[in-house]
Design goal:
The protein is an alpha+beta fold and 142 residues long. The protein has one domain: Nuclear Transport Factor 2, Chain: A. 27% of the residues lie in helices and 37% in strands. The protein is built from 4 helices and 7 strands. Strands 1, 2, 3, 4, 5, 6 and 7 form a 7-stranded mixed β-sheet that branches. Strand 4 and strand 5 form a beta hairpin. Helix 1 packs antiparallel against helix 2. The termini are far apart.
């Protein structure tokens, strides 16, 4: 596991670094945000539960090596923070650079904990947003 050099003073700092690493497809920067713990968990949209630092790293490596560059617009920000835990709920609007492909929004929950090395990501759970969030409200005929 790589050594940690970044200190994130707040969960917002850690989350901003997460989104920057994601958009740059920077694996080392991405993994510097995650806690070095076998208890970390990541669930990507439509994917399995990935538990442990190694599995999470491998998933991000595959995503970044795909060659696609992901751009996100974040909306519907809400969070709960206490001295040692932060839970952020986000809506992520995804665009893939080069294709100008837009995807259905993603509902994301990012959970951070504070330790001796600052704030670190311990869980990320994402899933496709329901149609009403995507602006595609189903029509009901009576």
């Amino acid at each position: 596991m790589p050594s940690r050099k970044s200190f994130f003073a707040s969960p917002d700092d850690a989350e901003a670094a997460f989104y920057e690493a994601l958009e740059r497809a920077d694996l080392e920067a991405m993994m510097a945000i995650w806690a070095e713990d076998e208890e970390v968990v990541c669930v990507l949209p439509g994917g399995p539960r990935l538990a442990g630092y190694g599995m999470v790293r491998e998933a991000w490596r595959r995503i970044f090596e795909s060659g696609y560059r992901i751009r996100l617009q974040i909306t519907s920000l809400s969070q709960v923070v206490n001295p040692f835990t932060a839970i952020h709920s986000r809506i992520e609007h995804v665009t893939i650079d080069g294709d100008n492909a837009h995807f259905a929004p993603i509902v994301a929950t990012n959970i951070f904990i504070r330790g001796a090395l600052g704030w670190r990501l311990v869980m990320r759970h994402t899933s496709p947003a329901p149609p009403e969030i995507a602006g595609d409200i189903p029509k009901i005929l009576h």
